[in-house]
Design brief:
mainly alpha; 75% helix; globular
């Protein structure tokens, strides 16, 4: 599935979402691996099969098998870490922050791609999943690696657009289902 086919599934009430998807697709401010890895990691984080299939299809032609696997790994590991660290942050009992997480996360240390790209994908997925602790941690690693604020902002903008595409498509499906009743 192409970006154009994905855009065609976005209903008219979400015209801005369609326009944002077009601008994201044509954005060339990020290197290809960073951009297309964001497509995959963020699409998976939306948990929307239509969005995931479309953006993975687009990205597969641009990414090496290792980069594609790393983008999927970023989404998977952040799904776990975002739940855990959001809980630790939000729980009233601050003792949890002193306890070892006891979660395997070796892929973060050795993602199989440029560490900054993996961190960028992890940050964007953490933004979708709403984990402030993980956002802060990944942003610090990116800053320490010399990644500028504009790149971080672009990654989070992509995450916002991809999430909004998923919501618009889901809302259209709900409207169709309700109309059929």
């Amino acid at each position: 599935m192409s970006i154009e086919q994905l855009k065609a599934q976005i209903p008219d009430f979400a015209k801005d979402v369609r326009l944002n998807l077009s601008s994201m697709a044509s954005d060339e401010t990020l290197p290809p691996q960073a951009k297309y890895g964001l497509f995959v990691a963020c699409a998976i984080a939306t948990r929307n099969p239509t969005v995931t299939t479309a953006l993975e299809s687009v990205a597969a032609a641009q990414l090496s098998p290792a980069a594609l696997a790393a983008a999927k790994s970023a989404a998977a590991i952040m799904a776990m870490n975002n739940v855990y660290y959001r809980f630790v942050h939000l729980a009233s009992n601050k003792e949890y922050a002193t306890m070892p997480a006891r979660l395997r996360m070796n892929v973060i240390a050795n993602p199989g791609v440029d560490k900054a790209d993996f961190e960028l994908w992890s940050l964007a997925v953490s933004a979708i999943n709403g984990c402030g602790t993980c956002i802060d941690a990944h942003e610090k690693v990116l800053q320490d690696a010399g990644v500028n604020a504009a790149t971080v902002q672009t990654a989070v903008r992509f995450a916002a657009i991809i999430q909004s595409v998923a919501v618009a498509i889901e809302a259209a499906g709900v409207a169709v289902a309700l109309a059929a009743e």
